[in-house]
């Protein structure tokens, strides 16, 4: 009975051993095939809601109400500020 238990234990250990992750090597091959280059720079545009010449306050207010705030206004730095007041 001890031998059967030892064999079952060895089989369980053999099954539980980690196998090499093939997805990393596949991704490396895919990047070489597609000639992909890593993005070095991230550029994020600021919202232009308060920079509009006409209707900036209305656009800012609508933007804030869409985000479930009561109102919104443009501050002196032309940034839309949402409030619940």
From TrEMBL:
GO terms for biological process: defense response to bacterium; humoral immune response. Its main location: secreted. It comes from the Eukaryota. One of its GO terms (cellular component) is extracellular space. Residues 1-16 form the signal peptide. The keyword Signal applies. It is found in: Secreted. Pfam families: Defensin_2. Residues 47-84 form the Invertebrate defensins family profile domain. The keyword Isomerase does not apply. Coiled coil: none annotated. InterPro entries: Defensin_invertebrate/fungal (IPR001542), Scorpion_toxin-like_sf (IPR036574). Keywords: Disulfide bond, Secreted, Signal. This is Defensin-like. It comes from Pogonomyrmex barbatus. The gene is LOC105428040.
